[in-house]
Amino acid sequence: MAFLDEVEAQIPDLRRYAHALLRDAEAGDDLVQDCLERAVARQGQKRPDGSLRAWLFRILINRHRDLMRRAPRPGHLVAVDDLSFEPALPASQDQHLALRETEAAIARLPEDQKRALLLVALHGASFDEAAEALDIPKGTLMSRLARARASLRDMTGRNADPAHQMRNKR
Amino acid sequence: MPQDRPPLTEQELIAYFEGALDAPAQQEIENRLPHDPAAQALLEDWAQQNEDIRRLFPAGSDPVPERLTEALRVRTARPASAPWLRVAAMAGLLLLGGGAGWLSHAQFAPAAQMRPMAQAALAAHATYVVEVAHPVEVRASEREHMDTWMSRRIGAHVSPPDLAGSGFVLMGGRILPADTGTAGLYMYENAEGQRITLYVSRQTDPEDSAFRFASSGATQGLHWNENGIGYVVVGDLPRDELKSLGTSAYEQLL
């Protein structure tokens, strides 16, 4: 497959990830557009043996880091109470609430944990691929994921271990 | 046997869950799992987290927007020069001709200033389109003076495009403070009294870009970068109308 066709094949996954990171489809598409423009401009820089997918996600993630480093724009801050989503499948009231809780919890994760967690959860990226895309050692990714998953458990009140819960009480 | 082993650590479980272990290590965890209910519960919870995340952000069923597939063709399809607005002060045009040299320069350029610029343009639009007494500083009747003055203040040769074909007639222009120095704002009006603005400012990022939309309430902005200058067309118009205005402005560059 030609380079551009291979890149194009990754667009749906890039969009899904960008949308999840920014919780805004339009802003997500802007991020993907930035990523694609950069990928085309820098195609000569991609190592021929490296994974194209990891390389593309890496460009997108770097752009997301740039975005977050700048002052967050008021237009994209969503109050936790205003979070809403359209579930892919009809959900019961309880499921719906649980999903909203999860959504709010993800929104509160530190950006580096959020990037790592969404990457492995959404795309079933291989562990090596995710470490490559995030440009961090595997050990760092491991502990980042552990922290993200533990925070998510705490924030959604699913942590059944009372000792652990006590520790995390404010 | 396995009962004597200490409980599985979170690190071991994460590595197992994410498929980061080799086959023997994987097998080792699987052998210990049946004797570790806490670990089983944790794994179930993580699986639920993944499922929740996938439900929250489902794979898009909508077709990929054209602007994304277009972004892949930007380098080859876009014209390289813009006669109606040319950056005299910057070596942009010469470098554009340089191909590889320009690309290698561009990839070290700072992050695009797209979004702050679009925001500034939307704010300027909101401030000035409602102005009755002084919508512009220099009227279009003084076009020559306006072009000279605004070009000098912005630090690049600027001259507004003719949008009369879409029914919008130039009223005039003004200058505004901007992050990157001084920006220009042109205002146009149609027969129904509807106004649109074109915001122009120098960008530190020399990279060209495709069209992008930004919005604030009913007000839509369409912005792009060309030869180190950013442009934003703003109006309370549907996106397709704005896009045709933007295309018309852009085509006058050819």
Automatic annotation (TrEMBL), chain A:
<feature type="domain" description="PhyR sigma2">
    <location>
        <begin position="7"/>
        <end position="60"/>
    </location>
</feature>
<dbReference type="InterPro" id="IPR014284">
    <property type="entry name" value="RNA_pol_sigma-70_dom"/>
</dbReference>
<dbReference type="Pfam" id="PF08281">
    <property type="entry name" value="Sigma70_r4_2"/>
</dbReference>
<dbReference type="InterPro" id="IPR013325">
    <property type="entry name" value="RNA_pol_sigma_r2"/>
</dbReference>
<dbReference type="GO" id="GO:0006352">
    <property type="term" value="P:DNA-templated transcription initiation"/>
</dbReference>
<dbReference type="InterPro" id="IPR036388">
    <property type="entry name" value="WH-like_DNA-bd_sf"/>
</dbReference>
<feature type="domain" description="RNA polymerase sigma factor 70 region 4 type 2">
    <location>
        <begin position="101"/>
        <end position="152"/>
    </location>
</feature>
<keyword id="KW-0805">Transcription regulation</keyword>
<keyword id="KW-0804">Transcription</keyword>
<dbReference type="GO" id="GO:0016987">
    <property type="term" value="F:sigma factor activity"/>
</dbReference>
<dbReference type="InterPro" id="IPR013249">
    <property type="entry name" value="RNA_pol_sigma70_r4_t2"/>
</dbReference>
<comment type="similarity">
    <text>Belongs to the sigma-70 factor family. ECF subfamily.</text>
</comment>
<dbReference type="Pfam" id="PF22029">
    <property type="entry name" value="PhyR_sigma2"/>
</dbReference>
<dbReference type="InterPro" id="IPR039425">
    <property type="entry name" value="RNA_pol_sigma-70-like"/>
</dbReference>
<protein>
    <submittedName>
        <fullName>Sigma-70 family RNA polymerase sigma factor</fullName>
    </submittedName>
</protein>
<dbReference type="GO" id="GO:0003677">
    <property type="term" value="F:DNA binding"/>
</dbReference>
<keyword id="KW-0731">Sigma factor</keyword>
<dbReference type="InterPro" id="IPR053866">
    <property type="entry name" value="PhyR_sigma2"/>
</dbReference>
<dbReference type="InterPro" id="IPR013324">
    <property type="entry name" value="RNA_pol_sigma_r3/r4-like"/>
</dbReference>
UniProtKB/TrEMBL annotation, chain B:
<protein>
    <submittedName>
        <fullName>Anti-sigma factor</fullName>
    </submittedName>
</protein>
